[in-house]
Structures are given as structure tokens and as C-alpha cells.
Amino acid sequence: MSSTTNPLRRLAEFGQSPWLDFIRRGFIADGSLHRLVQADGLKGVTSNPAIFEKAIGEGTDYDEGFRRLAAKGDHGAVEIYEYLAIEDIRAACDVLRPVYEATRRVDGYVSLEVSPYLALRTEETVAEARRLWSAVNRPNLMVKVPGTEAGVPAIQRLTSEGINVNVTLLFARSAYAAVAEAFIAGLEERAGRGEDISHVASVASFFVSRIDTQIDKEIDRRIAAGDPESDALRRLRGRAAIANAKLAYVHYQELAAGSRWRALRGAMPQRLLWASTGVKDKAYRDVMYAEELIGPDTVDTLPPATMDAFRDHGRPRASLTEGLDEAREVLAMAERLGLDLDAVTQRLVPDGVRQFADAADQLLGAVAAKRTAMLGDRLLGLEVTLPEAESKAVEAELARWRAEGGIRRLWAGDAGLWTGTDEARWLGWLRILDERSAHLEALLAFQRELREEGFTHAVLLGMGGSSLGPEVLAETFGRQEGYPELLVLDSTDPAQIAAFEARCDLARTLVIVSSKSGSTLEPNILKAYFWERLKAVVGPERVGRHFVAVTDPGSQLERVAGHDGFRRVFPGDPSIGGRYSVLSNFGLVPAAVMGLDLRRLLASAALMARSCGADVPPAQNPGVRLGAVLGVLGRAGRDKVTLTASPGVADLGAWLEQLIAESTGKVGRGLVPVDGETLGAPDAYGGDRLFAHLRLDAGQDAPMEALARAGQPVVRLALTDRWQLGQAFFLWEMAVAVAGSILGINPFDQPDVEASKVRTRALTAAYAVSGTLPAEAPALTEDGLAVFGEVAPGGFDAAIRAHLGQLGEGDYFALLAYVERSEAHRAALQRMRMAVRDARRVATVAEFGPRFLHSTGQAYKGGPNSGVFLQITAAPARDLPVPGEKYSFGIVEAAQAQGDLEVLRERGRRVLRVHLGLDTEAGLRRLEAAVVRALG
Ligand SMILES: O=P(O)(O)OC[C@H]1O[C@](O)(CO)[C@@H](O)[C@@H]1O
Ligand SMILES: O=C[C@H](O)[C@H](O)COP(=O)(O)O
């Protein structure tokens, strides 16, 4: 087609530049874009999130680029999208560069839109536009910025900085006027600073077809309803958008003729660009919008089909300035008929933002899914199997999270996602991996130093979040050649302390005192104890060399460590709570001590952090998916999160218990983690369970499968190696934060833990004065066992039977034992809980005090009142002194049990205490026998 007959080329005669509303890699690569420039006189390209969604989200055009980037390392979804999009935009810019040169910067532009998620935020939009401008690094780029209220000041700022802006999503003439004003003001600012304004280009993208779509819909509705004005309404079909655009152009002409504009000598005007020009209603001529809006100094961006149609049968004429009176009449008539154009154009802005955000979600979801597929088993797999109703409820929650931008709000620290209190202060865990990876030298140097010094043991003293993460690492990885064995001590039980001490060669033992607050009772008195013991072995000069502290800056422990000459003090991050601290120094210091490859651990965890990123929509985001399952099912009464782990990662359950229980169990709501129950057949369980399988080997696949088949909800986390532990940490942290939002609680506080601590403090203080703990008279004693609490008459068996008799549907049974956490004791508790589960089909937990007080204890006291508690205490066969205190460890342990019992009672929990006396083993045997009889 010759240049005189090609209707597209002929647009130039009327002063209009045709641009293409489309981009795709193959289309640039195979020369198609270039051919349009050559043959059709194409003068620019526009893109938007929906266009990129179609290009990148569908098909395989981008796989090669994807692989190229992956070869350089793992990247998040937005990074991948931008890498690919920017490559395309640059390539298109280069194809259009000759046009840019030949038209002396009037045309030849390629547009790239800022993230639609930012459309309502000025500062972020400015920052993003600047970033894209320098990343693309082409003079013929136009950054697309939505012409929303927040966009207007951004447009002025960017223009004043010399960045080319394509203002998008303009529907109302008033919005266009504001944008045109911002552009002029931006240029004035620039000129005022004496900077060049001749190269700053801008277009105002005025949308057309979307307006008719809305107005026509209303017209059709009213005609169908038999409106008496049906004939008049019918005559207005397909006319409002064009009339609106024509009058916008009148405003443009007035501005261009105005003195303010003329004063900006040498500047290029901000042209009107007709966007949304593809005809959506098949009843209309397919080139209608293209034909009716042709005029000087305008741009028309055409989707490929409209461009083909116009080339084929478009009839160009100077249409834009024709029939202005008619245009006014159309709008007046629309108003008379009650077709509210203002309301429509106003509504189209947020609709447009939402549509582009939806497209971006689709696009990023597709990118994230491809990334996951490419990572394969380097990434822990999450598989969710739910019964239909639960599945639907979770899908609905994920849809809500997507629509409300939940994951972006979470990463942005929007406390309103939870209870609107202090949540934003506790989100340091989100970014700790990058922070730690960038500052690993000190830890690596420390690791080398320890190796050289030949420590054989390291004892970590800490509670809850300061001990459970290290314990998982120690249990999962075991002793590493050339490094000390890590032992984690989180008990005040004298027998347990003595047992740990006996396992160590004190002369070659490093002690890690681990406490965020630095004021927790247990690590402090344990420190005092081991300090004395080591001093006796290595001497007062050397003892400090055997101690390191991990604690938050400014804590009492930091001061003590400084005073005592500890070998090192490693700081925690005060924006991370204990149970979220495992990937901070609280996990990394012990990991370094035990000789783990820190880089490997962090790099593996970072894969999951990216998968859970702000840029990964809920349906593809494993953190949000798992969180939605926990939250939605928990809210509906499936609140017993039953953890099953392959032996290789069995201890993960203990860490998860704290994360889940302490984070969610409060204000009478929350999730109750159930760790360590032996898996049973489906009929062993009630309807209050959610099963989470932490899978490293196939051992429990069959029973899990059976549960899923029987209609129990099952989530499976498949780890391919132990290093994916870091991924599991991050995934669960995110999931619990999400679940907390769904449950409507603050996942980062622990309001009920303090209550027991206060009671314990009061008891130990009283002990310091009187030398005894306040004695409570037992309700009964029998066969060496004493029972405390309200008991029915009839002796020990009857008391146990009555207590267990309280267990109803949806309840859980909890054994809270203040004894040494030895294998034999664990086994005894395990037998008792399993007997209860199998007889009563209730969830069961078996915990050791005081360890659980800093973990699940929060949920037992503050969560749902569905626990039936059996507290077990014993008299220590051999007590240990706490240096510098009147009380002993045995007294502390007793006070802790007593304090917790009082709070449990005060909270209306169903609790009974059994004191085993001096012979723990015999007492446990008697208790077990009574439990078995009670169930019989
Ligand atoms: O690290 P810290 O301050 O000693 O606290 C230990 C643990 O105690 C708790 O505060 C509960 O008492 C946990 O949240 C925390 O992980
Ligand atoms: O800049 C181009 C616009 O984003 C595009 O024309 C919108 O067109 P649509 O209304 O057909 O989505």
C-alpha cells in the first residue's frame, strides 16, 4: 500500500500520530514493529499492565529471557517481570529511535507504566517513575503515570525533573485539566531553575471506549426496563465518549493559545493521546473511535486489530474539530436524560486502577508460577488438600486478600491488617535475610575462631524464641565435624541442668546466653550457675572467654556481658520478636557455633522469602496460602494444628508450637498446635483438626494420604533436604502472620505470658523473705501422690476420671509436666496422651515446664478455653543452688508451676495438679495407670 493511500500514513496529513497499543517480544524480534514504522508511519508504542500480562503471562515468548535471568541467580516476581519488560521497552525504544530523531523528539516514544499498585500514592509513584526512567535509560521512554488525584503532583514533579510522562487513565475533562496544569507547572518550575525544557515530552492519555461501554450499558438497561425516553436514549448510544473527547480537545486548544503556555518558549506541548480506541461493541464500525478523533497535534494509540482495520478501510478526515456543537448537545442531552457522565468518568478511574492491578496480579502470578517451576525441588513444596467446603472458604479468603492487596499491606507494615496497634514495630523478620546476608563477616570470623580453639561443647541458655530455633538446628543437623556439639538448655529443673552439665567437658565448653530482653529469669540464673561452674574449672581470668551473649541492644544482659568480659555480644534486632528471631542472630549465632554453612542456610531461606514476597499474589504465595488455611480453618473450629514431621526434621514441631501458639492464642481465640502425637487412623480424630505434614521422607505418606482421603484437611510441606529448614522457618512465620490477620489478633504480642511470670516473681520474692513457698493443702493424697484442685470424692482414680470426664468435642487434653525432659519421662507422657486421644478422640499435648511457659503457655491461658490441663510436679531428688540467690532451681521450678496453675485457674481453665513426690518415675507410673483406668 502506497504512502498516499495507506489510511494510517494519511493521518500525518491531519497532524495525528498513530501509535501502537501493544508490545510483545516476538513482535519486536521478528521485525514486525519495524515494518509498522516503515510501512504505516507508526510513531510510537504504548503498553500497560494488561498488555504485558498478555505478553509475558501467556505463552513461551519469554522463557529464554527467564532462563537467562535465572542463570544469574534467583529473583523475585517483580524483578523478573521488570527485567523482561524493560528489555522489551528498550528494544522498542531502539526501533522507534529514528522516528524520535527525525521528528525532533515530537514522536518516537515507548511508554512503560508505573506499578498500578501505586496509583493512589504520590511519593511511591515518583520514586518508581524515577527508577524506571533510569533503569530503561532511553531518551524516548515515556513513563506512564495514572492521572489520579495522587498522580497529579507526581506528574508535576516528574515533569520538572525532565522525565517524559504519559498520563494515563484520564476520563473526565476536569481530570485532564488538572493534569495539563500540572504539566505546565512542572515545566515552569524547570524553566525557573534555568533548566532545558525543550526535550521534555508528555502526552495526556484520554480514554474513549470505556466511557461508551458504561454509558451504553445504562442506556440498554433503561431501554430494557421500558424507559419512556427510550428513543432519545437509543440515539445517544456510542456518542458520549467521542463528544467528551472532542471537548477535551477544545480545552487543549485554549491552553495552547494561552499566555502561560506561550511563555514556555521552546517547550513541546502535552498532546492529547486517544487511548482505549479499540471498539468494544460489535454493533459499531470497528474504526469508529479512530475515525472520529483525527486532528492536529494529537496521538491515537491503536491496538493491533484496530490498526489493521484502519489500514484496511479507515477513512481519515479532520473529524476532531467537526461538530463541536453537536458534541455539546450530546452531552447536554445525556445530562437531561439523567446519564451521569461525571459519575461514570469518576468511577472509571478507580475501576481502571483496579483493572490494571488485577492484570498485574495475573502477570506477577504467572511469573511467580514460572519461577516456582524453574526452582523445582530447590524450593520447599506446599501442597494443600482440603474438603470442598473448606477449600471454597480458603479460596474466598485468598480472593479477598488479593482484592485488598493484603500481602502488599503486610510487607508495607500496615498494622490495620491486624488490630491496628503496634504490629508494624515487629516486622523486622521480613527483611532480616537480606540484612544478615550483607553482614555475615563477623559471624564467619567467630565461626573460624571457635573451630581453631577446639571447643567440644556449646550450651545455649535461653527460653522460647531464644532457644527453640537453635534446638531445631542442633537436632536437625547434629554435631558437625570440627565444631562443638550444641546443647540447648531451657529448663530450671535441677535434674535436667545436672544432666546437661554432665554431658559437657566444661573446660572446653562455650556458653551462649540467649535472651532478647536480657531480663528473662531462666537464662539469667542459668548463666549465674554455669559462670560459677566454669570459673571453678577454667579460672576467673578465662571464664569470660567461654561466654557469649545474644541479646537486643541496651539490655541488662548486654551490660552484664560487658561487665563480665564475655567473649562476644551479638545484637538481636529489636524489631523482631523472639519467636520470629530464628533467622536473625538468635538462630545464626548458634548455627555458626555448631559449624553450619550460614550462607547456604540464608540463601535457601531467601528463596522462600521471595516466594512469599509482596509481589506474589495470594494464590501463588505459599505464605499467604498456608496462612489462609490456618486462619480460615482455625476460625471455623479446626483449630488444632496437628504437626507431623519426618524423623529428620522432627524437632521443627517444637519451634512451630511456639510460633503458632504464642502468636495466635489470645483474646479467647487462636490455634492450638499439637506436636508429637503418633499418627493414627482417620477415626482417631474429631472434626477440630488440621494436619500439617513436614515431610523429608516418604515414611508418613500413607497415613497422611488416608487422612486426606477420609476428608481431613491436610497440608504437606515437602522438604528435599535439611537446608530447606530455613525456608520452612520463613514460610511459617509468614503464614502465622497472615493467619493472625484472619483471626483478627495481634500475632506479635504475648499478653498472657506475663501473668505467670508475675505470679512466679511474687512467689520467689516471698520465698526470699520467708524461706518457704506458700503451701497449698492437697485435696487428697493417696499412694504417695497428692492432688490439688477441686476433686470429686472417691479417691485418686475418681479425681482423674472426673477430670478427664470433662473432655468434650473440640477440647484438648494437656499434660504440663515440671520434671526433667528425659527420654523416659517423655515416653511416659506420650503413652498417657495417646491413651487419652484414642479413647476420647480429642487432641492432646504433652509439654515440659517451664519450657512451655515461653511457648505454648500463651495459648493455654489466653487462647480458646478448650483445654483440660493436668499439671504434674515432683520434688527434686537433688536440688541445685542459684548463685547469689536464696532460692534454688528447685524452688524456682516449683514457683513457676504454682504461678502458672494460679493463672490457669484464674482464667477459668479446667486444671488439676498431681504432685508425684520424690520418686518421679514411680509417680508417673501410678498416674499413668490411673489415667488408663479412668479411660476404661
Ligand atoms: O529472649 P527473651 O527475652 O529471654 O524471651 C524468651 C521468650 O520468652 C517469651 O517472651 C515468653 O515469655 C517469648 O516470647 C520469648 O521467646
Ligand atoms: O495507553 C493505552 C491504554 O492503556 C489503552 O489504550 C487502554 O485500552 P482499553 O480501554 O482497551 O483497555
From TrEMBL:
It comes from the Bacteria. The keyword Isomerase applies. One of its GO terms (molecular function) is glucose-6-phosphate isomerase activity. Pathway: Carbohydrate degradation; glycolysis; D-glyceraldehyde 3-phosphate and glycerone phosphate from D-glucose: step 2/4; Carbohydrate degradation; pentose phosphate pathway; D-glyceraldehyde 3-phosphate and beta-D-fructose 6-phosphate from D-ribose 5-phosphate and D-xylulose 5-phosphate (non-oxidative stage): step 2/3. The active site is at K144 (schiff-base intermediate with substrate). It catalyses: D-sedoheptulose 7-phosphate + D-glyceraldehyde 3-phosphate = D-erythrose 4-phosphate + beta-D-fructose 6-phosphate; alpha-D-glucose 6-phosphate = beta-D-fructose 6-phosphate. Keywords: Cytoplasm, Gluconeogenesis, Glycolysis, Isomerase, Pentose shunt, Schiff base, Transferase. Pfam families: PGI (PF00342), TAL_FSA (PF00923). The keyword Isomerase applies. Its EC number is 2.2.1.2. It is found in: Cytoplasm. Coiled coil: none annotated. Transaldolase is important for the balance of metabolites in the pentose-phosphate pathway. Belongs to the transaldolase family. Type 2 subfamily. This is Transaldolase. It comes from Siccirubricoccus soli.
